[in-house]
């Protein structure tokens, strides 16, 4: 059906757990190498940093994966992140209680997802187009709301959240766990998860088997929008400002994490642990390069090469050679 | 006999002929499946050699090895006396080996003509001669008697029509050795006859032909010799004149079948569904009634509008006029969701496009319609999920290593069994089976017909669409004949002859339209 | 070199920051210390810079030199960092009282200087009349320093040059070509346009190209910000009327030097203004300016 | 197979010419509206500007379309543009004759395409991954070569090219024509073009028909790399510098132009005129907004909305309602 399918034709679903493990193996390998190569990698402080740094993209990547499994794509997530930092900042500064501001911001994410579902299902637009349009427009709306400036958030507790820890693990990473566990159950242990896969594999067959395809598509984009808004809230807490230009290229990082984690852009293949590992691989590359004091230009060159190497080895193993 | 085959049953002597292709211990293993155990077999130049066997016996695998689609695990292929690697399709084609594969492997986005000439385009000064190719393609199609346009996009044709194009395509290529893998699975008698004419003509031109089919009468009609595969092993080769159907079936499934068509008559119960002058895209003014305990058969040529009729009934397409009455009450079926809620189930005709999620596991495909039922609260009950899938796999003898294997790794017939199997546990009132036994072996067919009876005995009704006349003929309590979108005749169980029915299905221009109820 | 003092800039990919890094590198060599050169991949990537700061702290340095991308956002992270090491700020400010020392140009002041330069150029081209339409092109929305320049520029025009009318206030996407396209369209839509302020290096390159392309050198005055070879050539050719130039090399060099001193507990100056100068064809040969235009990169 | 396929299931190929025309119709409509709304739109100067502004993305979009038709994607093109501005700038400044510098730069583009083909065909990497990796690494290499600096090109004739015109039409637009005509013939009138479609439609069927699938994939990426390098040369001429950070997000603009022009991201559907029209639709939106002096933030909002509207109407018509 596609060029991507040629080499991967023998993907074995039953290898899935092993595959996750072994991509995890590659991640662990990187950690071991870094722990040996630099004195500062394996310190509590650095591990905390690393967990914080990977968290945002990790959560986005999970949402993106739901969409990609249906055969779609959500280019808007970076813009949603930027936009929702503004929303939550304005609401908090307007004196809303934090919980209410956060809830309302999450609803904004849901609304954006609904809009995407509407564009795809009712207007027949390609997911690429409708989410690209949202990406462009949302940044514009955010800039209009802030007049291009940053909004400083007047709430210390709100900002303290992103710096806090529980049992030595930063709250931000707890949020990843908070998202990952229900997502895992949802994707792999409920019928809606199955429906996502079936729609991505063959929407017509799914439809004729009684799967509500439109509703499934709505669900995927709503989840992606919701998680992006959640990341927006977390980012706002981390940077203490609302700024619509934040989250630039996050969509690309989220998609890349997902694909590195074994998701197929042609749909029907994906997991929750894959994108999580994928995103922490990317953060580890950055963190490691900083600690090793690699020149930032070399850092880009190396990031590209490592992506190739990791996906190549992972692919080799998956094809069972 | 020039064959070196070490057959389990000694092959009868044959009229002497030159060996064109010889298989010397040809073997294929997939991960988890030993699909072909070392096979020794020699094909004679100019013969029509049938290959039969159960679903998953290894027939298509053999073809894939011979056409360079898949690499073999071990063994030798000797072409005209010389060993050959057959590593790529290109290599096979260069030798003159071509195939019409079981699954239509063409490009649905390209036109019929573009598909026919794919890889062998006519160019002048580097530019494609598009008009010439369309003309040429049309000539070939017309010459074969197929009523199909060459300039349309392939994806707009039905599966059967695509299958005909795939066959027509083979004639464009300088072929010495041509393989047909279940070419008639989706064809009606009329198209099949056209295809047979083509095959005989090719034979007359000296082409060697391998013919794979689950329809025994075709084998006896066409073949010079027949080989039987069972579980990847070649269990025998026979001259056609020296064997008969029971023997072949016995070789295939290692037991005999008294009768394939299992027909139990139930007293028809209440009306389940009734259409009143239903019209839609591809059919008009169709009135059909299905009662509990009966099978309503729909027969017609390819494109007669039967599939469009049932998919409209099922809410997949909008009706343009008429009414649907469900258990006596008029209903609006606006989506397949509505249909399923009412109690309909549809096993569609095209397993690749409509029936299966090919890159998902067998078990997931089987359970797709019933996930709601096998979930308790929010979560899927893993135990039920396994049990349901395994039950269908056992009941329908779906040959798969485990329920977790991808549907795409199953043989064609076994994929078809999933398409049917997924509805059997659903508990619908009305089952619509559109070409349910396409590519299914005789043993399993008998099994499926028995399952029909079970459904009927539980008070369900069945609409059975088949392009294979014997199937509807032997099973339908009421048989409707479609022609060009209209219901033109209705018969009771075996109340008309095959010839009459065929005549009614064929479009004869002088005949007046309208039914003969 | 056992002592490590990382320097964190806003965006390593721009020439301006490379000059800062060159200054820091030189200081590292002169002082015999290790100077990791860090920075995000875009000035707008606030979160990225926070992460880099966190990583830098984790590597146990003697002190850290940082140029915060965002005033408010970097405040808390800098407070947190300063609880472990001494932090020296350069170039731009942050909402933190924890800086041991701070070496910066005032970007609002830079904007004012640009307005003065633009007014002067327009006056020179129109027989002393400081009148007509002017436009402002900002490389990207959401970058703090660019917003400050914009603020200074607009304030100054309003306050001092009533004859100048700001007819367009545009944002591009950080690409020279976009700056070029916007400038061309502005010139098309306003044939009587008198001047443009392109508030950073890459925009000045794009807008300069638009002026060169349409042979409007001298007719439409252009003030840029920061300098490189291309802009100096434009200045020489009369395409650009003036550049607001800071002293990035010194920020880098003195930043590291101050950081080392601070890490040893020596007393350092709390605030240093490194200055923003208007460079025109007239003063570009002056030794002091020449040194700013041609920093000694190694 | 995918959510995108649902609404478009009955795409009629024979409507293709009409479709191109009618997307063109939408573009012409925009031009008419702008000509009425602003005095400066319909001036020779502005038309010249518009043609120049749209040219670069138009050429990229054609290359991208070849790749997308095979079912792939080339995320690297923006980075290739930036990188090749550096290459051509360095070569010209090193005293190479212009023709030699340009030729060598184009060969760099070919080499990058070869590398992508290798990654996809020989290493089995998803196109998204290998081109994402190149995108990251190439920017790094370019930055290493320039140390983040812009390289001012010392050749007036080289720069004059982008400003020149012939018969009142800017050279840059002639370059679009120079690319479009052979591309059109190649895609629609040669067997290689047909093979691109066949690989995107059903790679297995193409392979069984004797189409050299690997070679076809190589070809698509080489063409995309070559055209991206060509755009790099043109951009260097236009802005007079070599700078590796230029061409940022061009990949997205090229893909968007292609998809607006009717290309399907699932492969096998696309044309040459579609992406050209798509890219000029995007340039017209920008040009028009600038002339109308629309606030830049509103401009983004409007761009997103217009993309939705245009693709929606185009889709409506294509589905034959
Ligand atoms: N790609 C594959 N990967 C793994 N197993 C496969 C693959 N293709 C076929 N098989 C297995 O090989 C066996 C033989 O399959 P094959 O398709 O040759 O059967 P067949 O005789 O053509 O059956 P049918 O009559 O159903 O078409 C089956 O058990 C099937 O599941
Ligand atoms: N020669 C043809 N070319 C293109 N399309 C055709 C042709 N003949 C029929 N069709 C299409 O097929 C539709 C009817 O096909 P349908 O699948 O419903 O028929 P069917 O009786 O079920 O035949 P089949 O056995 O192929 O399933 C018609 O509406 C028409 O659109
Ligand atoms: O002073 C610097 C500024 O802070 C930054 O944003 O851009 C480069 C320089 O002008
Ligand atoms: Mg088979
Ligand atoms: Mg049918």
What can you tell me about this protein's structure?
The complex is a heterotetramer, with two copies of chain A (321 residues), one copy of chain B (517 residues) and one copy of chain C (298 residues). Chain A contains 13 helices and four strands. Chain A is mainly alpha-helical and 321 residues long. Chain A has one domain (46-320): ABC transporter involved in vitamin B12 uptake, BtuC, CATH 1.10.3470.10. Chain A has a two-stranded antiparallel sheet. In chain A, strands 2-3 form a two-stranded antiparallel ribbon. In chain A, a hairpin with a 2-residue loop joins β2 (165-166) and β3. Chain B folds into four domains: 19-96 and 174-254, 3-Layer(aba) Sandwich (Rossmann fold); 106-173, no CATH class; 268-343 and 429-507, 3-Layer(aba) Sandwich (Rossmann fold); 358-428, no CATH class. Chain B has a six-stranded mixed β-sheet with strand order 6-9-10-3-11-12, with helices on both faces. In chain B, strands 18-21-22-15-23-24 form a six-stranded mixed β-sheet, sandwiched between helices. A four-stranded antiparallel β-sheet of chain B has the order 2-1-4-5, covered by helices on one side. With 298 residues, chain C is α/β, with parallel strands linked by helices. Chain C contains ten helices and twelve strands. Chain C has helices spanning 15-31, 46-58, 75-82, 107-125, 144-160, 176-189, 201-213, 229-237, 248-263, 287-293; strands at residues 7-9, 37-39, 63-66, 86-91, 99-104, 132-138, 164-171, 193-198, 221-225, 242-245, 271-273, 277-279. In chain C, α6 (176-189) crosses α7. The longest helix of chain C has 19 residues, at 107-125. Chains in contact: A-B, A-C, A-D, B-D, C-D. Chains A and D meet through α5, α8, α11 and α13 of A and α4, α5, α11 and α13 of D. Bound molecules: adenosine-5'-triphosphate (2 copies), beta-D-ribopyranose and magnesium ion (2 copies). One magnesium ion binds at residues 158, 306-307, 349, 434 of chain B.
